[in-house]
Amino acid sequence: VRVSGKWRTRADGRTLGELRQTWPDMVLVKLSEYQALSAARHCTPVKEIDEARFTDRLEVLPPEDWQYPGKGQGQSFKSSEYWSGDVTDIFAHVQGRFFEFRDRCTLSHQDIVARIQKEVFDREQA
Q1: How many domains does the chain have?
Q2: Is the Cβ–Cβ distance between 60 and 89 less than 8 Å?
Q3: Domain that holds residue 6
Q4: In angstroms, rounded to a whole number, what is the distance separating the alpha carbons of residues 86 and 19?
Q5: In terms of domains, do 66 and 104 share one?
Q6: What is the dihedral of CA 58, 60, 61, 67, to 10 degrees?
Q7: Is the CB of residue 99 less than 8 Å from the CB of residue 91?
Q8: Are 28 and 48 in a shared domain?
Q9: Does 120 lie in the same domain as 84?
């Protein structure tokens, strides 16, 4: 919050200068910047998993945004548990293989498949 022209924490009223005594690299950023930095910190690379893990995660909690477009386009779903903000675990079955990674819940099925294509299939072709 801003008090007498200075930004202060809500919890104890410390200024940025006071906080830097403990955390010298601390910076003041807009909320949208913080959310983007936080999301990037929690995102993970795509990793291949087995069918048992995919099925277990599908059945352990109700999935969010389960997509099964058919016609060989695979399927994907998102965990209903979130790591931070809008970052959650994402699971996909593409080209007969199973994958998991952590990213924003706003990714579409097409975005999920494109990320797997780039991080896995394209690298295997190289």
Answers
A1: 2
A2: no
A3: 2-38
A4: 27
A5: yes
A6: 0
A7: yes
A8: no
A9: yes
What does the DSSP assignment read for 15-76?
A: BHHHHHHH-TT-----HHHHHHHHHHHH----EEE-HHHHHHHHHHS--EEEE---TT--EE
Does this model's pTM top 0.90?
no
Q: Do 55 and 114 belong to one domain?
A: yes
The answer on 48 and 9 residing in a single domain is no
Specify the DSSP class assigned to residue 56.
H
Q: Tokens 């008090």 sit at which residue?
A: 3
What single DSSP character describes residue 61? S
Task: Please list, residue by residue across 47-82, b when 16 or more beta carbons sit within 10 angstroms of its beta carbon and e when fewer do.
Answer: eebeeeebeebbeeeebebebeeeeeebbbbbbeee
Higher pLDDT residue, 96 or 35? Answer: 96
Q: What is the pLDDT of residues 37-82, one digit of tens each?
A: 888 899 999 999 999 999 999 999 999 999 998 888 899 999 999 9
Q: For tokens 């990037």, what's the residue?
A: 40
